[in-house]
Amino acid sequence: MIRLNMTPVILYMVLHLLQTAWSGPAIPRVVWEYGEVSLVKFSETGVSNYSTLLLNEDRGVLYIGAQEAIFAVKMTDISNKTSEVYWKVTERKQKACAAKGKSRETECLNYIRILHEFNNESLYVCGTYAFQPTCDYLSIKNFTLQGRQEEGKGKCPFDPAQRYTSVMVDGELYSGTVYNFLGSETVILRSHLRTEYAIPWLNEPSFVYSDVIRESESSLDGGDDKVYFFFTEVSVEYEFNSELLVPRVARVCKGDLGGSRILQKRWTSFLKAKLICTLPESNFVFNVIQDVFILKTPNWKETVFYGVFTSQWSNLEVSAVCAFNMSKVEDVFSKGKYMQSATFEYSHVKWVRYNGQVPTPRPGSCINNEARTLNVNNSLMLPDKTLQFVKDHPLMADPVKPIGNRPTLVKKNANYIQIVVDRVRALDKKLYDVMFVGTDKGLLHKATNYGNEMHIIEELQIFPDSEPVLTLLLSKGDKKNLYAGSHSGVVQVPVAFCEKYRTCMDCILARDPYCAWNPQNKICTWITKEDTHESNLVQSLNGTAAACRAEDVESASTEEYKVKPEGFQELKCLPMSRLAKVTWKLNNKALSENSKYRVVQNNLLFSVTEEDSGTYDCWTVETVKGRQYEQLVKRYSLIVEGPTKVLTTSPTAPFTKMEGNSATTQTSTDKERRSPHTVTSQIQTGVFTSTVSYTSTPTFTISTSLISRVDAEGVSEPSTAERNDGVLLTLFVVIMLLFLMLVSYNCYMKYLPSPCLKLRMYIVSDGKKPEFDSDVSEELVKQQAVKMNSDNKGSEQIAAGDRGYETESDCGNGKIPNTEKPQELKQIEENHSIGSIDIEKDADIPDIKFIDEEAQSLC
Ligand SMILES: *[C@@H]1O[C@H](CO)[C@@H](O)[C@H](O)[C@H]1NC(C)=O
Ligand SMILES: *[C@@H]1O[C@H](CO)[C@@H](O)[C@H](O)[C@H]1NC(C)=O
Ligand SMILES: *[C@@H]1O[C@H](CO)[C@@H](O)[C@H](O)[C@H]1NC(C)=O
Ligand SMILES: *[C@@H]1O[C@H](CO)[C@@H](O)[C@H](O)[C@H]1NC(C)=O
Ligand SMILES: *[C@@H]1O[C@H](CO)[C@@H](O)[C@H](O)[C@H]1NC(C)=O
Ligand SMILES: *[C@@H]1O[C@H](CO)[C@@H](O)[C@H](O)[C@H]1NC(C)=O
Ligand SMILES: *[C@@H]1O[C@H](CO)[C@@H](O)[C@H](O)[C@H]1NC(C)=O
Prior knowledge:
Blueprint: H1 6-20, E1 30-32, E2 40-42, E3 52-56, E4 61-66, E5 69-74, E6 81-86, H2 91-99, E7 112-117, E8 122-127, E9 134-139, E10 144-145, E11 150-151, E12 165-169, E13 172-178, E14 186-190, E15 193-194, E16 206-213, E17 226-234, E18 245-253, E19 271-274, E20 278-279, E21 284-285, E22 288-295, E23 304-310, E24 318-325, H3 326-335, E25 338-344, E26 348-354, H4 369-373, H5 384-392, E27 409-412, E28 416-425, E29 431-439, E30 443-450, E31 453-461, E32 471-474, E33 481-485, E34 490-494, H6 504-509, E35 515-518, E36 523-526, H7 550-553, E37 558-563, E38 568-571, E39 581-586, E40 589-590, E41 598-600, E42 603-607, E43 614-624, E44 627-640, E45 655-659, E46 662-666, H8 670-674, E47 678-684, E48 687-692, H9 707-710, H10 713-716, H11 720-748, H12 753-763, H13 775-790, E49 807-809, H14 822-838, H15 848-858
Helix pairs in contact: 11-12, 13-15
Organism: Scyliorhinus torazame (Cloudy catshark)
Region (Disordered): 650-677, 786-838
Domain Ig-like: 519-618
C-alpha cells in the first residue's frame, strides 16, 4: 500500500499540462462586450439572487425564483412581468436563525431554491426560509401561495450557499441536498426513501444536477424509469494525502419502494460510478463536475449528456466539457463490476474491484422482467442477500468514459459552471450539438466540436459586472432563447447573432450552425426550418469559404484623412475575428514592422512625414483547416498636407489618432503640466508598461507614445532655436525638478504623508477598474513593483497607452521607475503578440489606476 504524495503529482500534472495541452486554440472567434449586442433583462429593485428558473413554453412563461420573491415574466420578452409574489420570512424565524449564529441580513432570508411544475394548476416552491427549509404550492392562476407549508428538510438546502439539485417526476420530488442544519448529513431523497448515511454511499457530495430518463418507454426487458444524479464527492477509492474529489453519476429507479427488512426506507437501487474527463495526452484530470445538460432523445439509448468540469486545484483556471453516452452509463450499472472495501493491516480500508459471486436478482438493478420471473414484483420483495450486497457495494468499479475518450472542449483562463446544449440541424441536413457554457465571470461561450476540432464561435458578456452565471436554460421553440440567472438579474439571450456578421467571409468563417449567407440580399441570416429543404443560402461548417465571391471579400469601406506631417498616426483596424492575423499594406505593398511602423493591437502606428500619403489597407488572414482566407477590413486614404515640422519644446508631442470616422488631435493635458514627472501607461491585452520620463538635456520632453521609443529622434530632439530660449527655462526646470524630487522623497518616506496622498489621489483620475485576464499582466505588475523599488537613475523614453495616450502623475515617491532595458519592452511586446493567441480578452484594457494602486501601496 503506497500512499502517494499529492504535491509532486499535481505539480507534474500542471507543468505537463501547460506544456502540452494548449496546442489547440480554443479562442473565441468573436467577442461581444457587454452592450454590444442587445439583450432583454429582468430585475426588480430591492430583489437579488435570481438563481432559480423554470420555463413553461406552453404558457409562454418564465418563472423566476429570487430572494424572497417569485416572478412570472413573458418568455418572449422577460422584461414584461406578468405576476409576482413575495414570500418573506417572519420576524420570529429570522430572530431564531440569527440566534443560531447565522447572518440576519443575508443568510436568514428566504432564498427560493426549488420551482417545479406540480400539476397544471400549481407550482411546487421551496425556499431556505432562514435556515429552516420550507415548501409550498403556488397557484398559477392567481399567483398566490396556498399556505400549505411543508417541511423542506432534505428537499431544499438550509444554507443558501450550498449546492443542491432536484427534479419533479410524475408529481414526486427527487432531491439531492443536506438533511440537517449543520450540513453533515447529505441525502438523495424521495419522500420517505433516502440514501444511507454512510461514507460509501455519499461522502461530502456537492450536487449539481438530476433528471429522469424514461427508459421504460422503449424497454424490452420491462425496465423502469431512472433518475440520474450528478455530483462531486470525496473519493473513497483513491488514497492521497489530501482529499481527492471525484465526479460521479448515480441513479435510482423510479419504482423503488425500499427494502422490507434490510434497507427499509432506503433506496435499493442506488448505484454510482465515476465519470472520467481527462486530457489523454497530458493526463490532466478534470475532477470537479460543475453542471450537466442531458440532451434527451426519443430513444433513450441515444441520449448524450454533457458535463462541464473544472479541476480541484482551482488556482488553475481550466475547464473542460465532456460528452457521455447514456447507454454506456447504463452498461456500467447493469453489467459492470462492483467495488468492495477490504480491511488491511492497521484497520486501514482500501477499495478494490470485487470479483466474487454476485447474488440474484442483480443488486441495485431496477425491477425488470427477469426479476419478475424470480417472483420479485417490487423492491420490497428483494431477497436479503441482494439488499445486503447493494448496501455494501454502491460504487461501481468501471468508470464512465467520455465519447471519443477525450473532452469535447478544453478552455484555459475560464471557469465553466453552467451548460446547455442545443442540437441544431444545419443546411447540410446534419445535426450539430451547440454548447452554451456560462462562466463564473458572467461570460457565455458558444462552441461546437467539428470532428475533434474545438471551435468557440462566440464569447458574450451577459452581465455587466463579472458575476457568475447561476442558471442557464434553453427554450425549445422556434425562436430559441437562452435564459441566464445571476445575483443581479436575469437576461434573455438569442442563440445567435447572425445579422452581426456583415460580410460573406465573416458569416461563413463564423461556422455557426444557426447562420447562413444570403448572396442575393448580402446578409447573414438565421436558418429557418424551410431553409434546410431548399435554398440558395450558403453555409459551410467545415470552414470552406470558397463560396464567397471576390466583391464580398473586398467590401471594406474607405476612409479619407487629411493630416499634417507631424506627430503620430494611429490607423485603427478592428477585425471581427480574433483568429485572424492582421497585415497592413501601403499602396498594396505589405508593410513590415521596422523603425518607422509599428503594429500594436492590430493598429498601425507611425510618425508622419510628407512622403506618407497613400492608401493604407488593413487585411486579415484567417486560416481554417490549412486554407487561408484574406479579407480587407479597412482602407484609409491618407493625404499629408504642408511641410514637415520639427517637434518639441512643448512638453508633449502632439499626435493624431484615428478611429472610425474621427481624427482627433490631443495635446498635453493639464495633468501632464502639473509635474514633469509623468507616468505614462500602455496597457493592451493584459500587457502594460509604465515609466516616468524626463530628459537630462536642457529641454525636457515627455513623450506620450510608444512610437517615441521606436522613432525617438524625430520626436524628442529639440530644435536649435528653441534650445536658445530654453536655457533659462532649463534652469528653472532643473530647480523645480530638484524641489519636486525633494517633496516626493519626503512624501515617499512618509514625512508628509497625508498631503502627499491627497495630492496623488487628486491627480489620479478615476478609471475603469482593472481587469486582468492573463498571468502576463500580473507578472508585469510584479516587475513593475520591483522596478519602482530598485531603479532610480537614468531617464528613458516611455511607452504610452494606446488608448487615448493618457498620462498620469507619479505617486511622487521620488523614486523614478524607468525601463532601462529596451529588451524588456521588447519582451513585453513579444508577450503581447503571444498574448494575441493565448489571451482571449483583447478588449480588456486595464486602466492606469491599477498601476497607481500598485504604486500607492509602494508609496
Ligand atoms: C406585456 O404583455 C402584455 C400581454 O401580452 C401586453 O399587453 C403589454 O403591452 C406588454 N407590455 C410591454 C411593456 O411590453
Ligand atoms: C388539469 O389536469 C386535470 C387532470 O389532471 C384536467 O382534468 C384539467 O382539465 C386540466 N386543466 C387544464 C386547465 O388544463
Ligand atoms: C387562488 O386560487 C386557488 C385555486 O387555484 C384558490 O384555492 C385560492 O383561494 C385563490 N387565492 C386567492 C387569494 O384568490
Ligand atoms: C446574493 O446576491 C449577492 C449580490 O447581490 C451576493 O453577494 C450573495 O452572495 C448572494 N447570496 C446568495 C446566497 O446567493
Ligand atoms: C452510444 O452507445 C450506443 C450503444 O453502445 C451506440 O449505439 C450509440 O451510437 C452511442 N452514441 C454515441 C453518440 O456515441
Ligand atoms: C407478481 O405479479 C404477478 C403478476 O403481476 C403475480 O402473478 C404474482 O403472484 C406476483 N407475485 C407475488 C409474490 O406477489
Ligand atoms: C465543406 O462544406 C461545403 C458545403 O457544406 C462542401 O461543399 C464542401 O465539399 C465541404 N468540404 C470538405 C473538405 O468537406
